[in-house]
Write a structure and sequence with these properties.
With 229 residues, this protein is α/β, with parallel strands linked by helices. It contains eight helices and nine strands. Strands 3-2-1-4-5-9-6 form a seven-stranded mixed β-sheet, with helices on both faces. A two-stranded antiparallel sheet has the order 7-8.
């Protein structure tokens, strides 16, 4: 992969995920670290924090190694990472949906967390209005990017995303919608049920918090080892 292409590979620092890390992390694992922009932002905000990256693409890993403390090259589904813990946090930024068996990966990695350690992950929201509108029209069209990225192997609603982490023995302590195409048409705190229009379709009987979920392109999850129940 040419260096110019690597520069664009996972090149966003994902501030919204860094915001969800513990207050003073000392050791963080960035799974699917790409060119290292997310991990570099962690180190910028938390001086002294050691960030270990895992990346399958060797070219991207070489770029990431310039800013992270250590980069392990290989397939995260088969790598043994026993020597990287104990961890204050594990980051999965746009990676779990690309795996054959993300359930086993998260379950195995959860054992690397210190007590109270945190997983922060973003997952595409397959319940998004973007997908629902296509289904109402009888289509499911893969694309080069987005929720139906053709490289995605797994798809999650909020409930299934929560189950992914709960099945690994983690406690989900927060789920944050990430909006791609504007904010929901229902103000926060709205009570009762509402209706929304999706082009030629009108859907009624929706709870306000459901509308907020439907408008999210991604959902960001925070789950803790030994977290509150």
């Amino acid at each position: 992969m040419p260096e110019a292409a690597v520069a664009d590979y996972y090149s966003r620092p994902r501030h919204e995920l860094v915001d969800l890390l513990p207050p003073r992390p000392r050791r963080v694992l960035d799974v699917g670290c790409g060119a290292g922009m997310l991990g570099a932002e962690v180190k910028r905000r938390h001086p002294g924090c050691a960030v270990v990256g895992v990346e399958a693409n060797a070219d991207a890993a070489r770029v990431a190694a310039r800013s992270l403390d250590r980069v392990i090259v290989g397939d995260v589904e088969t790598l043994a990472l026993d020597d990287v813990g104990p961890l204050d946090a594990i980051l999965y930024g746009d990676v779990l949906e690309h795996l054959v068996d993300p359930w086993t990966v998260v379950r195995r990695h959860a054992t690397l967390l210190a007590d109270g350690g945190r997983v922060v992950a973003s997952l595409p929201n397959v319940r998004s209005v973007e997908v629902l509108l296509g289904l109402l029209r009888g289509t499911w069209e893969y694309a080069d990017a987005g929720i139906l990225d053709r490289s995605h192997l797994r798809f999650f609603t909020r409930r299934e995303g929560e189950r992914l982490f709960a099945d690994a023995g983690l406690t989900v302590v927060g789920v944050q919608p990430l909006y791609w195409h504007g904010t929901p048409p229902v103000p926060p705190g709205t009570k009762g049920t509402v209706w929304v229009e999706l082009d030629e379709f009108r859907i009624s009987g929706l709870a306000a918090d459901t509308v907020h979920e439907l408008w999210a392109g991604q959902l960001a999850y925070v789950a803790e080892r030994g977290g509150r129940s």
